[in-house]
């Protein structure tokens, strides 16, 4: 989970850092808005899978009703700002793109989101008091759901934000690209290659 959360943060950082440095080019601005849309879709996919499958399974395993409620509450805390950002990415015309506006929308939800992503890791570590094999199987089920994704809009973003070197390179998820790239222009904003190797951001000063 730490790897997935790191990828979410890396994706958001790439959006924030590049947002005000795009050239006045409608194609690039369109591609960047698509990139933002895909990041939002990835976020929805991740948190929906947690709330609809993983969290209920963990509560069944632990026998503790409401054990994961703090995580659900934290999702709700950043949702209004996140939805404002998503709406802008979906409705803004390339010719009307405003990098400062987009950056301010990110700032409105970034702090509660990153706090949640860090807190959730502590919550998961605390599950070691329960049946470890059942918890492991529940997490494998979550991974399977996360991989059952849109191979054209979400998968390229997941690979392009995953860092092969994170935590000493101990993770091999996702292992190899399994998608046929589309929206080629959008993936120029990813902070890593499709093989999860770090690279310089395309538009930053």
Automatic annotation (TrEMBL):
Entries under Gene3D superfamilies matching the protein: nmb1532 protein domain like (1.20.120.520)
InterPro entries linked to this entry: Dimeric_xanthone_biosynth (IPR053206), Hemerythrin-like (IPR012312)
UniProt domain Hemerythrin-like: residue ranges: 4-123
Protein name per the record: Hemerythrin-like domain-containing protein
Classification lineage: Eukaryota, Fungi, Dikarya, Ascomycota, Pezizomycotina
């Amino acid at each position: 989970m730490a790897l997935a959360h790191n990828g979410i943060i890396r994706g958001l950082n790439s959006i924030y850092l590049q947002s005000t440095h795009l050239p006045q080019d409608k194609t690039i601005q369109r591609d960047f808005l698509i990139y933002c849309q895909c990041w939002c879709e990835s976020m929805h996919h991740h948190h929906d899978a947690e709330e609809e499958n993983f969290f209920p399974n963990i509560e069944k395993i632990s026998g503790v009703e409401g054990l994961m409620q703090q995580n659900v509450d934290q999702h709700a805390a950043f949702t209004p700002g996140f939805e404002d950002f998503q709406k802008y990415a979906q409705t803004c015309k390339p010719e009307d793109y405003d990098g400062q506006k987009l950056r301010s929308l990110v700032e409105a939800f970034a702090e509660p989101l990153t706090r949640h992503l860090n807190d959730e890791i502590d919550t998961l570590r605390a599950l070691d008091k329960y049946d470890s094999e059942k918890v492991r199987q529940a997490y494998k089920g979550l991974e399977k759901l996360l991989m059952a994704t849109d191979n054209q809009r979400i998968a390229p973003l997941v690979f392009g934000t995953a860092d092969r070197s994170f935590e000493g390179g101990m993770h091999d998820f996702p292992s190899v690209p399994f998608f046929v790239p589309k929206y080629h222009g959008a993936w120029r904003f990813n902070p890593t290659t499709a093989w999860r190797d770090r690279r310089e951001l395309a538009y930053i000063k």
